[in-house]
């Protein structure tokens, strides 16, 4: 039975998030977009193509005139304008017009890049998200943030462009590496910490089933996380205010991701950034040290890093890197802190000294289990 969530805003845009256990029903969901006479280009990466391209292509073929496929080398390093350019060239060569459709089959890298091409090619064509990583199923496929990195700066060039449909199959979680599964847990724990303490506790209580990738429990994770993110982006799709709460852990997380030269997965850096932000929240007396310690244990349970010890990161360089991210507004850094576990707020008063102290604290621990 498909689980379905609706995303809408003032009648301006609306799409469904469908969570299934296989790709078998994808061909039944797409026709609602009136694609019968259209061409569809499936955009995917070199790791996902051998796993899922054939079955997804079979489904997509049922609901359009012609299917093309564009495969690019996997990895964050390829989430850039060079890859977008080769995709534009491909679409031009195949005569894609404004009514044709793109399908992003893959993780957040494919989704962000394909969505950005969808936002800009011919000033915008429709795209469908078929997320295949835990991270993309709970986070990146929803909300319409699309974009690419520029000179290693995360997501520096992009556009808000909503997908026409999100179709996630939990079956794809079984082929993910341990590291990539853990990375998704980084964003999931973030969702609990910023918006829903009960969810955070539920995640901790179901740690064994989650680690074993019990797909029923994973489905619950996907649905609750999607609901949390949906509720935020419906109210503030272009991040004028509340949406920035989803950036909890990303101010320092993005800087660490860049300085580690993308050797760590996105969700791993988010986990480190969340801990540093939680530490600052505790120093300011809003949450307790015991709660931070509990968070450290929670991230570690999901095999996420909880210390930067041995990473060779210089706190001053990390702080410098935050200044070139999108978190700067009118010269002040936009930071997300916890008022309490399950409630975040945007703070513009975090000082460099606080960040430096938090980064030193983060380097002091260990990743030994
Ligand atoms: N747009 C947003 O709102 C948003 C939100 C969160 C993260 N992001 C972005 O998403 C990206 C991270 O996404 P990600 O974690 O999905 O990484 P990813 O897309 O790089 O995928 C991780 C790795 O897993 C492989 N893979 C994908 N699906 C697989 C499967 N089912 N089985 C086996 N291997 C598979 C990929 O080829 C890749 O090597 C980052 O660029 C981040 O900035 C965007
Ligand atoms: O959707 C959002 O908004 C988020 O902030 C979700 C984040 O997990 C995601 O990594 C996002 O891409 C970060 O946004 P950015 O604007 O800082 O690049
Ligand atoms: Zn993120």
Structural key phrases:
two-stranded antiparallel sheet; alpha/beta; about 375 residues; about 20% strand; binds zinc ion; 14 helices; binds the ligand O=C(O)C(=O)C[C@@H](O)[C@H](O)[C@H](O)COP(=O)(O)O; binds nicotinamide-adenine-dinucleotide
Structural class: alpha/beta
Work out the radius of gyration: 20 Å
- Number of helical runs? 14
Tell me the total number of β-strands: 13
Element string (H = helix, E = strand): EEHEHEHEHEHEEEHHHHHHHHEEEEH
Strand order of the largest sheet: 1-2-9-6-5-3-4
**What gross morphology would you assign?**
globular
Largest sheet: 7 strands, mixed
Low-confidence stretches: none
Hetero compounds:
nicotinamide-adenine-dinucleotide, ligand LNCXM5UN, zinc ion
Helical content class: 40-55%
Distance between the termini: 39 Å
Overall average pLDDT = 95
**Strand-residue proportion:** 15-25%
Pathway: Metabolic intermediate biosynthesis; chorismate biosynthesis; chorismate from D-erythrose 4-phosphate and phosphoenolpyruvate: step 2/7
Domain 3-dehydroquinate synthase C-terminal: 184-328
Enzyme class: lyase
GO cellular component, one term: cytoplasm
Describe this structure in words.
- The chain is an alpha/beta fold.
- 45% of the residues lie in helices and 20% in strands.
- The strands form 4 sheets. A 7-stranded mixed sheet has the order 1-2-9-6-5-3-4, with helices on both faces. The chain has a two-stranded antiparallel sheet with strand order 7-8.
- Helix 5 packs parallel to helix 6 (178-195), helix 6 (178-195) packs parallel to helix 11 (266-283) and helix 11 (266-283) runs antiparallel to helix 12 (289-301).
- The protein is globular, with a radius of gyration of 20 Å.
